Amino acid sequence: MFRFETEVDKERGLLLRSLLRDTNTAASPAIRALRGTPDERELPLQVWAFDPADGSLAGGLDAHVWATWLHVDLLWVADRHRGAGLGSRLLTEAENLAVEHHGCANSRLETWDFQAPGFYRQHGYEVVSVIPDYPPGVKEFTLTKRLG
């Protein structure tokens, strides 16, 4: 069974960004830079999953809350754990924490066409915008969901 933690951990957040950057770079050389640091009014929210076999990071979700919105910045699951529901569990845990501890009413996120727009739709998210060629050759989707 996975071990989960919800404690905000800056080093793991940086690791998660690095791991997702590596995954995205491998999938699409067109991707260049990640977002900058969040506005200081934003509160971080992170959920971690650890592999029961060796304790390594199996997946993680890095987000922030602001103005009754959860903004999922990154969701990453290790290759060997994909397709087993871990991404769903990470997302659900973050949404529940956002509602229960931060009073969030909505969630938003961005994803690229080669990542997971179908995954988020299965979890109740709706596409509100599509940006073609952001970066060139890739579509970026913005999705939102009413929480609670």
UniProtKB/TrEMBL annotation:
MF-aspect GO terms: acyltransferase activity, transferring groups other than amino-acyl groups
Protein EC: 2.3.1.-
Record PROSITE patterns: GNAT
CDD domains with a match to the protein in the record: NAT_SF
SUPFAM superfamilies: Acyl-CoA N-acyltransferases (Nat) (SSF55729)
Top-level taxon: Bacteria
Boundaries of every N-acetyltransferase domain copy: 1-148
Keyword terms, alphabetized: Acyltransferase, Transferase
Protein name, entry field: N-acetyltransferase
Species name: Streptomyces tabacisoli
Lineage per the UniProt record: Bacteria, Bacillati, Actinomycetota, Actinomycetes, Kitasatosporales
